[in-house]
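Whiteboard transcription, Tuesday session. T.W. wrote the structure tokens on the left side:
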């Protein structure tokens, strides 16, 4: 017997009679709403991603610049000095500049103080005998203009016991003369190398590193070659000897005997000797050196870099431009700021130079110890 089929309409009618309500869900509206939600989320996610890629490079750039500025602050003392000008009084500025100069300009000089102290202090009689055995005497130097390359590291303690002033002065000059000429030779070789580098179209990496080092040693900013050439120059021998004689009393001062300090240079951060009678709140000391040659090097660097001797360097450069010899008596006029006595100090220096005929040594040459030095004679 064949069963009759029940249609969907009949089922719907039956359920309706029983109280059930059936409605067909509109799938088109469902998909429309769901698509809208997906689109919104996609748009929002895209905006976040785009923002990240846009902001991240700006953040990285800011971080790099901040890091670079920090490094510059750490290493560039001159910029620190310039940036604090408006917030410092004159005494603070002077101290800041001196500390900056000492740390960065005297760096190679102060490194000598870290070397082992194995130098022997010879007696005055031993040194005099050494000069005699090598035929090194000032009368011959005045005639021949040649100096024996004898380097004495420490002043003899007995020099202050030499009662004959003439003999004490003679020994002092003999000791200091080769040291001053040696430092002038070093500077002259550096000047020669600079001009060689400048005249070349292409420079080697080592040459660039070397000249960068010289900019630092002479406190020259912005790689200014003209300033470097003015600063990197010799100090007349007669001036150096006269100042050493004045500052040490011809080698008998405590600073010279205990610290090989020939020129009374002050220090704020390095090892030094506190002057007798100095007030407790004073921070400066007289710079101490392991050997006399280091004191001479520091003295040359001081005159060639410190702002107090700018006119000294300017006048020296002018003499160079005019092809003239360095006139020590004229150049001493610009050393009045070396001591508190000012112009009186200049008169004393000129008097020492004249009385001891120190200008005779201005054109003296050190007998060469190498082929490189032979080119300077």
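and on the right, the sequence the group agreed on:
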């Amino acid at each position: 017997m064949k069963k009759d089929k029940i249609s969907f309409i009949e089922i719907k009618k039956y359920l309706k009679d029983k109280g059930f309500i059936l409605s067909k869900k509109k799938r088109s509206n469902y998909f429309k709403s769901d698509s809208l939600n997906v689109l919104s989320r996609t748009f929002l996610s895209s905006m976040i991603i785009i923002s990240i890629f846009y902001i991240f490079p700006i953040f990285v750039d800011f971080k790099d610049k901040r890091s670079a500025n920090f490094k510059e602050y750490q290493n560039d003392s001159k910029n620190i000095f310039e940036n604090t000008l408006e917030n410092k009084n004159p005494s603070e500025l002077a101290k800041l500049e001196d500390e900056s100069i000492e740390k960065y300009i005297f760096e190679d000089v102060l490194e000598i103080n870290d070397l082992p102290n194995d130098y022997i202090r010879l007696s005055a009689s031993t040194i005099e005998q050494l000069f005699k055995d090598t035929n090194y005497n000032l009368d011959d130097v005045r005639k021949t203009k040649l100096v024996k390359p004898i380097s004495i590291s420490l002043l003899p303690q007995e020099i202050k016991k030499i009662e004959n002033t003439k003999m004490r002065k003679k020994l002092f000059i003999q000791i200091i003369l080769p040291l001053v000429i040696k430092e002038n030779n070093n500077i002259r070789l550096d000047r020669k190398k600079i001009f060689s580098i400048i005249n070349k179209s292409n420079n080697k990496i080592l040459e660039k590193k070397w000249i960068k080092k010289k900019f630092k040693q002479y406190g020259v900013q912005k790689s200014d070659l003209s300033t470097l050439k003015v600063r990197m120059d010799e100090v007349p021998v007669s001036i150096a000897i006269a100042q050493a004689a004045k500052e040490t009393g011809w080698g008998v001062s405590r600073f010279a005997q205990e610290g090989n300090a020939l020129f009374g240079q002050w220090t704020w951060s390095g090892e030094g000797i506190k002057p007798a009678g100095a007030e407790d709140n004073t921070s400066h000391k007289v710079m101490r050196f392991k050997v006399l040659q280091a004191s001479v090097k520091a003295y040359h660097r001081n005159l060639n870099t410190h702002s107090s001797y700018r006119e000294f360097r300017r006048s020296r450069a002018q003499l160079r431009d005019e092809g003239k010899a360095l006139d020590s008596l004229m150049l001493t006029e610009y050393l009045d700021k070396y001591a508190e006595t000012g112009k009186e100090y200049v008169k004393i220096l000129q008097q020492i130079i004249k009385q001891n005929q120190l200008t005779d040594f201005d054109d003296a040459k050190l007998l060469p110890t190498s082929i490189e030095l032979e080119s300077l004679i």
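Someone added at the bottom: Residues 27-75 form the longest helix (49 residues).
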